[in-house]
Amino acid sequence: MTKRLVIFALAVITFAAAPQALKAADANARCPLGNATISGAYMTQATGSIVGVGPMAAAGVWTFDGQGNSVLTMTVSVNGAISRATLSGSYTVKSNCTMTISLSGGNNNYDGVVAPDGNTGYWVATDPGTAFNGTVVRPGHPE
Predict the structure, then answer these.
(1) Are 62 and 87 in contact (CB under 8 A)?
(2) How confident is the model at residue 26, as a pLDDT?
(3) Are 79 and 97 in contact (CB under 8 A)?
(4) Is residue 61 part of a domain?
(5) What pLDDT score was predicted for residue 107?
(6) 68 and 6 share a domain?
(7) 91 in the same domain as 53
(8) pLDDT mean for each 10 residues of the chain (143 residues)
(9) Same structural domain for residues 81 and 52?
């Protein structure tokens, strides 16, 4: 009986302390809002190259819904050939402000960081054969 009482008491203490530990961890998070850290329309630009194809540059508007979905509307120059595209996909912002983005259309995966206030972010393409990076900036908030 005493052994059961001790186990029960330890379990109660453990469960009572767990929420406090989680609150302390959340308090130290730089981006505690997760995906909601970035929300709304952002200006974006990118420069770099596609291996075996040539230099590239892009500019557009990247809209994030704060829930993990995004739409990128852009104009792209790849080795001088101009195209326009709209891509959609998902993103994740972690509590340490790192983010991952994956867009439709193949070979559109990115890693990056976002400022804790959500006003700016920096990303780099992670697909093989790509060597470009860019920024996202909320209008009205300089980089």
Answers:
(1) no
(2) 57
(3) no
(4) yes
(5) 85
(6) no
(7) yes
(8) 48 47 61 97 97 97 98 97 97 98 93 97 96 95 63
(9) yes
- Judge if 26 and 86 occupy the same domain: no
d(CA 41, CA 139): 8
For residue 113, the model assigns a pLDDT of 98
Query: 3-class SS at 120?
Result: strand
Is there a single domain that holds both residue 80 and residue 129?
Answer: yes
DSSP state of 45: E
* Amino acid 43: pLDDT: 97
Q: How far apart are CA 122 and CA 114, in angstroms?
A: 6
d(C-alpha 19, C-alpha 36), whole Å: 22
* Other Cβ atoms closer than 10 A to 130: 19
Q: Residue 8 has what pLDDT? A: 46
Domain range spanning residue 124? 34-137
CA-only gyration radius of the chain, Å: 21
- Residue 35 near residue 49 (C-beta atoms within 8 A): no
